Amino acid sequence: MLLLLLACAGSKDPGSPGDDSAPVETDSAPPDSDAPPPDSDAPPADVRVFHVHPDGDDAASGAADAPWRTLAGAQANLRALRAAGSLDRPVEVELAAGTWTVGETWTFGPEDSGTEAAPVTWRGPDEGEAVLSGGLAVTGWTVDGADWVATLPEGTPAPYHLWVGGERRALAREPDEGFYLQAATPGSLYDQLVYGAGEVGAGWDLSRAAVHTFHDAWGAWETSRLWVAAHDPASRTLTFSAGSTWGQYAGNRWWIEGVPEALDTPGEWLYDPDTRVLRYRPHEGEDRAALDAVVPVVDQLLRVAGSTEALVEHLGFTDLRFAYTDWSPDADGYQGLQAAVGEGAAIEVSGAEGVRFEDCLVEHTGAHGIWFRERSQGGVLRRCELWDLGAGAVRFGTTVEADDSGGHTVDNSFLHTGGRTLPSGQGVWIGQSSHNTVSHNEIADFYYSGVQVGWYWGYSSTTAEDNLVTWNHIHHVGQDMLSDLGGVYTLGVSPGTEVSYNTIHDVQSYGYGGWGLYTDEGSSFVTMTHNLVWNVDSESFHQHYGEANVITNNILAYARESQVRRSREEDHTSFYFLNNVVYFDQGDALYSGGYSSWTPGQYEMDYNVWWAPGRCSSDWAGYSWADWQAMGNDISSQVADPLFVDAPNLDFRLDPASPALALGFETWDLDAAGLYGDADWVARPDAWGWTSETHAEPGAGSLTDDFESTPPGDPPAGAERWGESADAWVRVVDTEAHSGSQSLEFQDQAGLEASYAPHIWYVTDFCGTVTGRFAVKLEAGAEFYHEWRHWPDGTWPYSAGPSVYAGADGTLYAGWVAIGSVPVGQWVEMEVSTSVGEGTTGAWSLAVTQADGTTQRWEGLSGSPLSQLDWVGFVANADAPGRFWIDDLDFR
After folding, report:
1. Using CA atoms, how far apart are residues 617 and 605, in angstroms rounded to an integer?
2. pLDDT score of 791
3. Where would I find the H helices in 216-264?
4. Model-level pTM?
5. Which of 699, 472, 634, 660 is nearest to 554 (CA)?
6. Residue 268 pairs with which residues in a beta bridge?
């Protein structure tokens, strides 16, 4: 039965649940005289408007001055009018402002349909003013020690969620923040967990405890919530009531919740269904008398349910707010497979065509937001906000190929802050469903992918075809919570699917796989074009395996691991990677680690522009650019600056002189992705304060330090150190200085781990003509050594360029060839210069200026060519006591 209560100031008691007031006669619709004046914002005269208000009467006409009282009564009246043929023009049912509490799911069937000429729309008076709530306000709090307690009414379902002041509160858990790591892999891999010492008390009450596990070792894209069935403190083993889909391996993250002994932190809560007592540990400053606490009493607020034989058609919901639903693991717990596919939504539509949601708000859910399920066609979600979601926001279709769902649209909607109970929820999920459009949405703050398209592993045919994901702004997904995810993620064969004109950035995974555009597990015949991607953890584009995908005309910038990845080699063309601009300051151009292949012949790459600002050379899967092209790859492509307006500050517009344009690259409006409409709506995401990391100016690298800002006795800022001991060190002192009052002292000793102990080095990223200047002073017996290297991974071998050595007697060496001497006990200034980059000779110069201004210069000194300068070191090289000092470093 449907419980319909309206809580608003001055309202009367609407009566008992399921009011039996008779519906109005079919000829008692509001008279045309109720039509608004032409200049008002109300519906036009050809729309019949009915009203529902707690002071109304279900036997009234439904006019503004004679409203109906309950939702059930309003539905019954409309059904009667429809059966009598009286609904011959569009109908709107306006709910009064206030909170309508739904004790059971509000359900619509075929008898609630409209027609194409006379659609039926249920609406509020204005956006968010009429609230359909599945929540129960908790009152009557008393104090019990550090906690506040309240007794829920008899018959209230045991809640798994609590909101206070509209904020989701944590079920009592340990640890209070973060995670434990599983201590060992259990003997029974799927239904046991081994915890670390001190993490679970031997005497804890685990009768209602659940463990939330993250399957980092395998299944890293999902979690499980499993009920504890047994506890063996001796072996530190928890046994669950049922097994998980993915195993419980050592190192997996986890926490335990629903434990009385864990109720120890403000904001935590616990419920005892035997006594119906809700216990809450308040935050400082909360007011017990005015506490806005809500527990949800339904898992679903709204269901539109028809069938193949009898559809629900032409039904709409506008300007309504849907809030507060629950979710809890079933008797066997939650065993996630991927994307929380088996869990329900606050609003579900099945057996329906043309169901619309416009200007609606969905918030505070236990699981997903809205789901257009089996046998649903042509649904619309437009200009809606879905947030504070237990799982994902919007779902199209199911995992069953024959479910015949498609043609839906989610447009101009703000989908954010999801996965709060089930982290694998996504912004938009499209399963076995075709011809859907996901356009102009802002999708942010999810813990898994932003948008998923498809549901099949491998090359079998599916019904996920011709889906369009376009002009969306997708950002801050993954967020270091799950792995193996993407801004846009496709799964399986998907002919005709297009991913275009999206802006995707800030994709961060917990372990591996934070990708921008990700074609996974047989994704085939997908086009990804005109997308802008930046700041992703792994690669901007990754194809696991698939066939004939077209990746063209995208800007892929600032991926952190490498830029493009191809994982599996197969006997067909994996993808066509054409006319893209790839821009990066970290990693290599192509991923060439484990489980990857760049054997030529099964992919095509051409007409691309690659550029790593400030870098002298890049690597293409272990090949130089010349060798990469010689293999038949990127024949017409260029390694060249694409001339972005301001890439470091994330302005990726192209200068008209860009070489990418000359190769056929097409520009588009990079600011047009995301929401559109009035300024307040478009600016709504700004209030959340999401930011994106900017980058250093290319070519602006420098290394400078006069050691004046480092406290004496501290090590040098920004330098790596090796080989120090109690008697040998590198530290800032105020007893010597070339300028100012401080310098960097190297103290050497005999018998250290190596003659080159201690030493320091700076990690740099120089190329072009590089000049380094510094001052040095040697004490008698000290040996000073300075070298430049290309040493990208810190392992042998490395390339050594300029090197300067001053022996214990002051003899000066360049590349271990004696060229002169320097005075001991006096400051001298040194200047080293060379060209760094592809095709350089390794020749370098040295100038030494003594205290009296005398300068000696050596040109054409010999060293190894450096394609990159990423290591600059200073070494105390004697096997004897001795000191030297350096000051006024200036490398640029």
Report:
1. 19
2. 83
3. none
4. 0.83
5. 660
6. 170
How far apart CA 831 and CA 861 sit, in angstroms, is 13
Q: Which of 348, 374, 380 is nearest to 121 (CA)?
A: 380
Dihedral of the alpha carbons of 773, 777, 780, 785, in degrees to the nearest 10: -20
Domain residue ranges of the chain, discontinuous segments joined by + = 136-295, 299-328+338-445, 703-891
pLDDT surpassing 60 at residue 19: no
Please give, one letter per residue, the 3-state secondary structure of 263-314: CCCCCEEEEECCCCEEEECCCCCCCCCCCCEEEECCCCCEEEECCCCCCEEC
Distance CA 102, CA 95 (A): 14
744 token code pair: 């960097």
Rounded to the nearest angstrom, the gap between the alpha carbon of residue 595 and the centroid of all alpha carbons in its chain is 24
Query: What percent of the chain is helix, strand and coil (3-state, nearest 5)?
Result: 5, 40, 55
The first and second tokens of residue 209, run together, are 């405890």
Q: Which residues contact 699 (CB under 8 A, 6 or more apart)?
A: 613, 614, 768
User: What backbone torsions phi and psi does residue 651 show, to the nearest 5 degrees?
Assistant: -105, 100
Number of H helices, E strands in the chain: 4, 79
**Dihedral sign of CA atoms 509, 512, 518, 523 in order:** negative
Three-state secondary-structure class, residue 360? coil
The percent of residues above 70 in pLDDT, for the chain, comes to: 94
CA–CA separation, 832 and 773 (whole Å): 6
Q: Which two tokens stand for residue 438?
A: 């996901």
Tokens of 285: 């400053």
> What is the token pair recorded at 786?
């300075």
Record the tokens describing residue 263, joined without a space: 């109720």
How far, in Å, CA of 342 to CA of 336, rounded? 8
- Return all residues near 184 (Cβ < 8 A) that are at least 6 apart: 194, 250
Residues found in the chain: 892
Residue 480 Ramachandran class (φ > 0 left, ψ -120 to 50 alpha, else beta) = left
CA distance from start to end of the chain:
76
CB atoms within 10 A of CB 651: 10
Question: What is the topology classification, in CATH, of domain 703-891?
Answer: Jelly Rolls (2.60.120)
Dihedral sign, CA of 755, 760, 763, 769?
Answer: negative
pLDDT in tens, 498-541: 999 999 999 999 999 999 999 999 999 999 999 999 999 999 99
Q: Which residue has the tokens 């998980």?
A: 244
Three-state DSSP string of 803-871: EEEECCCCEEEECCEEEEECCCCCEEEEEEEEEECCCCCCCEEEEEECCCCCEEEEEEECCCCCCCEEE
User: What sign has the CA pseudo-torsion 776, 781, 787, 793?
Assistant: negative
**Confidence band of 248 (pLDDT split at 50, 70, 90):** very high
Q: What is the DSSP letter of 63?
A: B
Whether residue 14 is predicted with pLDDT greater than 50 in this model: the reply is: no
List, in order, residues 6 or more apart from 505 with CB less than 8 Å away.
474, 475, 487, 516, 532, 533, 534, 535, 536, 650, 692
- Give me 266's structure tokens: 């403000």
Q: What are phi and psi of 496, to 5 degrees?
A: 80, 0
Residue 600's closest CA among 574, 618, 626, 619? 574
**261 — alpha (psi -120 to 50), left (phi > 0) or beta?**
alpha
pLDDT at 152 over 90: yes
Asked whether 470 and 438 are in contact (CB, 8 A), the reply is yes
Q: What phi and psi, each to the nearest 5 degrees, are found at residue 784?
A: -110, 135
* CA-to-CA dists, residue 605 to 531, 581, 654, 763, angstroms: 17, 12, 22, 33
**784-790 sheet: strands from edge to edge:** 720-722, 759-766, 869-876, 784-790, 799-806, 811-814, 817-821
Query: Which is nearest to 553 in space by CA: 575, 582, 524, 519?
Result: 582
| Residue in 408, 315, 349 with CA at minimum distance from that of residue 90 | 315
